[in-house]
Amino acid sequence: MFGEHFQKQTDLITRGLKERMDKRGLVLPSKEKDISVYKDFYDFLKEHLPHQFSLATGKVRGKKHILNRSIDCLVYWKLCNKIMEMTGGYILVDHLYSFITLEPELSTQQLITHATMTKGMKALYAATRDIPDNQILPVFSVLFAYRSTIPLLSHKVALEDTAREKEIPINHETDLVCILDQGVIVKDWESGGYRAVETGKDTLMWFYILLMEYLDRDGKVGFDAREYIKSSREYKEY
Fold first, then answer.
1. 151 in helix, strand or coil?
2. Rounded to whole angstroms, what are the CA distances from 120 to 48, 65, 67, 115, 194?
């Protein structure tokens, strides 16, 4: 049931990206990322997330500080339009549940850039909520890519090397990397490192399952997607 549905959704969002990028054609490099090519991914989230969550693209602020960087996709609890006006259009970090970077093809540099941004975002959240250094921060960092010529294991090693070299605290690290039709890399809190799993054509399904679990930090989602998985497929993990 779930497997077939998400395989069809994978086809839709990958075909949509290709069509929009082909239509856009060759463009000169720009500081501003063209997020319009990801419309089908945003539509997928809108259709599959509970109604209490809102989506946005833009910047985030805390009580005193601002993360001066536009984020591709923000999943948050929206208070009301007037409060959004008062914050200057910024999303309040303490109402943020997840932030997502989108990439057509994932490079090592993009992985490092996301990890560095994650450190800043989680530090902003921790400062606003006054959370101790050793506590898991319930605002989840996700990097979503449509493809990658770099093996999953290499991305896993790059994540761990970046955390060590940049001295990123364990609770300020990336939570999930998803590469369609390839696999997922998930933060392993027990080992302090990461687990890479070759989920293949089931990757979007596992992205959705994990994201729903991340969003259930308040215990109010009321839907455990894992209970509906009827597949006995085994995945290679390392």
1. coil
2. 28, 11, 7, 9, 20
Q: Are 60 and 67 in contact (CB under 8 A)?
A: yes
Residue 107, Cβ density class (10 Å: 0-12 exposed, 13-18 middle, ≥19 buried)? middle
What's the rounded Cα separation, in Å, for the pair 95 and 116?
21
Q: Which residues contact 111 (CB under 8 A, 6 or more apart)?
A: 143, 155, 158, 159, 162, 177
Average pLDDT (202-226) is 92
State how far the alpha carbon of 34 is from the alpha carbons of 21, 27, 40, 57, 60, in Å.
10, 10, 14, 11, 19
pLDDT band at 31 (very low <50, low <70, confident <90, very high): low
Q: Check whether 23 has a pLDDT greater than 70.
A: yes
What's the pLDDT tens digit per position in 78-112?
877 787 788 888 999 999 999 999 999 999 999 99
Handedness of CA 183, 186, 190, 191 (dihedral sign): positive
Mean pLDDT of 125-131: 87
Q: What is the pTM of this model?
A: 0.94
| Distance (Å, whole) CA 156 – CA 177 | 9
- Tokens standing for 232? 């006995």
